[in-house]
Amino acid sequence: MKRPMLTQREAATACGVSRSTIRRRREAGDLPGAVQDEVRGWLIPVEDLLAAGFRLNAPSGPDVPAADSAAAGTVGHHQEHGHGQGDDVAVLQAEL
């Protein structure tokens, strides 16, 4: 299965940090699987984000209340019960 890749902007949003934080961590070598795409720019593997210590929160869209979002409920469930990083990856893959 192909691993999910996020643009720097998407990674920053999913992790709740600035794009410059993602860029600095990429430049420091903390995101070794990052590749540059001619169209989308830098693409960051979700696994690299998790390995670098980022937490993915997968926020819901502005017009969908979090209580009604199945993805938001799933992420909250996993975080509350302390499931591993693989659960976060599975949730993101399901969203893609």
- Output the number of helix runs: 5
Low-confidence stretches: 63-83
Helix content: 40-55%
Instruction: Please provide the ordered H/E string of secondary-structure elements.
Output: EHHEEHHH
Structure in words:
This protein has a three-stranded antiparallel sheet. Helix 1 packs across helix 2 (19-27) and helix 4 packs antiparallel against helix 5. With 96 residues, it is mainly alpha-helical. The chain is built from five helices and three strands. Helix content is 47%, strand content 11%. It has a single domain, classed as Multidrug-efflux Transporter Regulator, Chain: A, Domain 2 (Orthogonal Bundle).
Task: Give a brief description.
With 96 residues, the protein is mainly alpha-helical. Helices cover 47% and strands 11% of the residues. It contains five helices and three strands, in the order E-H-H-E-E-H-H-H.
Features:
single chain, 96 residues, mainly alpha
Layout of helices and strands, plus pairs?
Layout: E1 5-7, H1 8-15, H2 19-27, E2 35-37, E3 41-45, H3 46-51, H4 70-80, H5 85-95
Antiparallel strand pairs: 1-3, 2-3
